[in-house]
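Side project, low priority. Logging it here so it doesn't get lost.
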Amino acid sequence: VLLEKMLTSAKERGMTILIFQPMSGMVSAPDGLYFQGRNLADEAVRDATCARMVDTFEHFPMVDGGVMDRPEWNYEIAPPHDIIRPLFDDLPPQLEPLALKLGYDFAAMVAAKDRLKHTLHNLDARRVRLHRGGGLLDSFALLGSDPDLLAWFKFRVDAVTDYFRLVREAMASHVSRPIKLGLGPRTPAFGLLSGCDFLELAGFMDILLTKHYFW
């Protein structure tokens, strides 16, 4: 009751009210790790997330919308800890149906991921010096000129974009009033690596609040 009074008072003062993580209370992370791919690939999890958000927005009619904090792909390359999986553990077999849906060769992406890991563990100073100043094309050469590697990173972007577009459509269809929907992606230096294409997301999300912290 006190929360509803506070939100109503804030609305009466002309404030815009956005709930952070309006799906809170939804699913717990499997195995104690936040497996981003599961939330991106599992339609039942996405539907339950949307249902929880709709329930939140309908329960608080004075609220203008919400800001989502995830899902996104991980970008760390260190071994996992209590929150996230490393970059190279982000393509388990459960993601193959999502890859097929989005038009990607899952086995080829897994092989490219493994080649990248091998390449990063075998860089030498001569090769780095050769390619360090050449921008995109030299960076591509440094990492093996591997087209399937680019496909893997494009898949990450497409999966995140598709997920949030479907969530946006669900909110438009099932919430009884127009609501604003925001997202908190990583800072632009890490955005694409985590699957967040700012230009794509800005086409249908109302607000992008970039994070400026790192694990």
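Brief comment: The longest strand covers residues 65-68.
Revisit when time allows.
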